[in-house]
Structures are given as structure tokens and as C-alpha cells.
Design brief:
Helix 1 packs across helix 8, helix 8 packs antiparallel against helix 9 and helix 9 packs across helix 10. The chain is built from ten helices and 15 strands. The protein is an alpha/beta fold. The strands form three sheets. Strands 1, 4, 5, 6, 9, 10 and 11 form a seven-stranded parallel beta sheet that branches. A four-stranded mixed beta sheet has the order 3-2-7-8.
Length: 306
């Protein structure tokens, strides 16, 4: 089973407004509500590509029940820890410029945190755990490190998709996969990532620090995969980008979902890039049909000296 952890889930309220005017009354041309949060996005894509997944995390109030009901409708297993506060609502405004307004979210008590850790302690060797997103301020800064240590003791593979010091703290515990984008990678090393060679160079530093596989997403310039043996670069398929929300999460889901089926890092990387692009070309998360339509366009080559 692939488990995902979303510490601060949300309802993502997608609003499209033509000719948005600040300080005026605006009318929507389209609005939709989706269950949100990076780990939840990973679970939704995993289910769409044929992998079983269970969503963990904290939910509360009617908004939390909405998130759970949506996932159940998509036949995704859930084992959320209930809290007193309401699950947050995030606004995704689509107009001339893409704008996000993200709420802080409810406070999480020590008791609720321990309940989640208890669930993670029950994972078995063949399971995989995905830790996605930032850590809420009401939780310990080392929450991901604690979870990684628990999983390391049982040889459970862990995927981490976060940024900054939190990411550096977990690398030494040998996560199966981490996925910084090129901006996040540059911040980690106080440098600039100008091309795929730079991405390979600094991605390999994370491999040397402990990560088993590192994917560096580079928007229109494709993506780089660093493993303990080689570095690869993949191009981006042709298409019109209409949505950036969830593209990185889709890459994570595509990689681990395909790896569970094939045990091939190379095949998984190719599927990962197609998955991220399929979401970028869609109004919601990607579909299996669009991923497979884009796959023939994905070309992968080894980065020499990477």
C-alpha cells in the first residue's frame, strides 16, 4: 500500500474570472471545489493510474468531511485523524495571472499528532509513505524526521516532497525519492540553477547526502533525475499550460505508481514527466488517458558527467 500524509489538507476552491478588477465586484465564469493538499493530490493521481493508496493526515469540521467524502467517491482509502478545528479553504484564482490565497489551517494538538504517529508505526516493509508539503507551525519542526526514523526501522520506503531545511534534515535518512524544483534546489545550496547540468550537479549532491533518487523539475526546460548511478534529463511534451497546481504532485505519483508496477527507475521517470505535464495541460489533475497520450513525446537521455 502507498500511504500519503497531508498535514494541512484543504478544499481548493478554483475560481475563474475574466478581466478581474481589484476593488470591484467580479463575476465568476467558472468555479469548482476539489480536495486539496499535496499528499491528497498524490493519492488522487495514484488512484487514476491504477495504484491502491490510503490518505492520512488531519481533517476537521464540515470542510474536512467534504474532503473525505470526495476521496471516498474516487474510491481512495482514507484513515484521517480528526481534529477540532475546520479544514482550511484555499482559493485558486484563474484570471490574467494565476493567484493563490492559502489559509493557515487549524491548530493540531499533541494528542492528534501522536495518533498520526501511531498509524505510521503500523506500516509494514512493503508499504511506501509519501510526506508532502510544509509542516504546520503547531507541529514540531522535526515531524518528518520523526516519521522517517519510524519508517527506516521497518525498511519502509519514504518519499519526501518539501523544501528548505526540512528537506535537508530528512535526506540523511535515505528517502527513496525527493522532488525539489529548480528554484528550491538553488535555495538549498545558495546558488543559481541555469541549466540541466547545474540541476544534475546539485541534485547529485543530495544523492551523496543520502537520497536514493532525486527529481528536479524545471518547468518548460523538462526535468532531471539523479540516481546513485547516473543522471538523466527528460524533455517536456507539447501542450498548452493552463494549470500549475498539482503538477509536481503528479510527477511524484507517476514515478512511484509506475515504480510499484515495473521496479524500473528509467520507466518511472518517463511516466513521471508525462504525469506532471498532463496535469499542467488540464484544469484538474491528470488522467491516465492523457498521460499515455503524452508518453510517446517524452525522450530521456543520460547527462554525461552527471
Amino acid at each position: 500500500m502507498i500511504y500519503t500524509v497531508t498535514l494541512n489538507p484543504s478544499i481548493d476552491y478554483l475560481v475563474e474570472v475574466e478581466n478581474f478588477q481589484i476593488g470591484s465586484v467580479n463575476r465568476t465564469s467558472l468555479d469548482k471545489k476539489y480536495p486539496g493538499g499535496k499528499g491528497i493530490n498524490v493519492s488522487r493521481v495514484l488512484k487514476r493510474i491504477g495504484n491502491d493508496t490510503t490518505a492520512l493526515g488531519f481533517i476537521g469540521g464540515q470542510t474536512g468531511e467534504f474532503v473525505k467524502a470526495c476521496l471516498n467517491t474516487e474510491e481512495i482509502y482514507t484513515n484521517f485523524t480528526k481534529i477540532n478545528g475546520d479544514t482550511r479553504i484555499n482559493i485558486k484564482l484563474k484570471t490574467e495571472f494565476e493567484t493563490e490565497i492559502n489559509s493557515q489551517g487549524p491548530e493540531i494538538t499533541k494528542e492528534s499528532y501522536q495518533q498520526l504517529l501511531s498509524l505510521i508505526s503500523d506500516l509494514q516493509t512493503n508499504d511506501m509513505l509519501v510526506l508532502s508539503g510544509s509542516i504546520p507551525t503547531s507541529l514540531p519542526n522535526d515531524a518528518y524526521v520523526t516519521m522517517m526514523k519510524m519508517c527506516s526501522a521497518k525498511d519502509v520506503n519514504v518519499v519526501v516532497d518539501t523544501s528548505g531545511k526540512v528537506l535537508l534534515d530528512v535526506v540523511q535518512y535515505q528517502p527513496f525519492l525527493i522532488k525539489p524544483n529548480h528554484h528550491e534546489l538553488a535555495q538549498l545550496f545558495s546558488t543559481e540553477i541555469k541549466n540541466v547540468q547545474d540541476a544534475s550537479k546539485y541534485g547529485m549532491k543530495l544523492v551523496e547526502a543520502g537520497a536514493q533518487n532525486v527529481i528536479v523539475s524545471m518547468a518548460g526546460d523538462g526535468a532531471v533525475l539523479c540516481t546513485r548511478e547516473k543522471s538523466y534529463v527528460a524533455n517536456v511534451p507539447k501542450g498548452r499550460v493552463i494549470n500549475s497546481v498539482g503538477a509536481g504532485d503528479s510527477m511524484v505519483a507517476g514515478f512511484i505508481g509506475m515504480f510499484e508496477k515495473t521496479d524500473s527507475v528509467y520507466t518511472s521517470f518517463r511516466y513521471s514527466v508525462a504525469s506532471g505535464s498532463a496535469t499542467a495541460f488540464s484544469s484538474d489533475l491528470c488522467t491516465r488517458e492523457l498521460i499515455e497520450e503524452l508518453l510517446p513525446q517524452i525522450e530521456i537521455s543520460e547527462i554525461k558527467g552527471g
